[in-house]
UniProtKB/TrEMBL annotation:
Keywords annotated in UniProt: ATP-binding, Ligase, Nucleotide-binding
Name of the protein described by the UniProt record: Argininosuccinate synthase
Presence of keyword Secreted: no
Coiled-coil segments on the chain, per record: none
Species in which this protein is naturally found: Sphingomonas hengshuiensis
Amino acid sequence: MAESINRVVLAYSGGLDTSVILKWLQQEYNCEVVTFTADLGQGEELEPARAKAELMGIKPEHIFIDDLREEFVRDFVFPMMRSN
């Protein structure tokens, strides 16, 4: 029997792998799934990810898409470029 889990936050891209795990979490644990998608500059993939999450039964208020482009460039891209 699955352990009692009420809510899970899933790093969600809208792709096949995260969509399959989203459905598995809902079925296996009968839990509420909250999706988080980081905008790192991928652009047009964000709204389809939101739409897929909604189609899979995620409430709109449990779908989070945050713009992390500035942090990504500052904390990862620039340090990588400086290190050559």
